[in-house]
Amino acid sequence: MNSLGDAFGYAFKDPKWVEKILVQGLILIIPIVGWIAAAGWLMITFDNLRSGRLELAPAGFHLRQGIGLFGVVLIYSVVVAIPGGVLAGIGSAAVGQSRAAAASASSLGSLINFAGQLLIDFLLPSLIVMTHHYGFAGGMDVPRVWALATRNVGNSVIGGLILLAAGIIGWVGVFACCIGLFFTAIYGLSISAGAAAWFERQQSAPSLPAT
Prior knowledge:
Blueprint: H1 17-28, H2 33-50, H3 63-93, H4 99-139, H5 142-151, H6 153-171, H7 180-203
């Protein structure tokens, strides 16, 4: 990635980009398995980019490559959602006693959930890099993930914003009778892979653990 803007366009330089995105999008329809395969597709594409090859991963069931990142993102997402979920639950329980208190608790819960999602977007480039280097354990190494993310906060913020944009682009497919979601989501993952490759290059790869 010569620039962060390349993350949006490099996919179209792959002669087989239509085939790869369409087939991987069809695989994405499969519950859970499709998302693990998509995470593996992202990781292989990321590896291609960091090696200087501007090409998408071949479509396929990349479960071995994707299970680590899928698990890492799932766990982080669940953990950051707990505070907001608890407040939302309190709001629901308080409806019969005080509507104002219930509304306040629910609003605060929604605000915390939004902040939690922004935190995930901020950490996601580091999670991709750390999981690529060290597998599931690397992604769950919170101190090292945080150290990488804060080595240059500006890069993490910019990378996170691109990943947020990639997610929004992914949801654009909902307007194409919903089925388009699966294909725009895969394109969004290609953007995420490009953003992560740019981030690693800017932030520099984390040092290898001592042997």
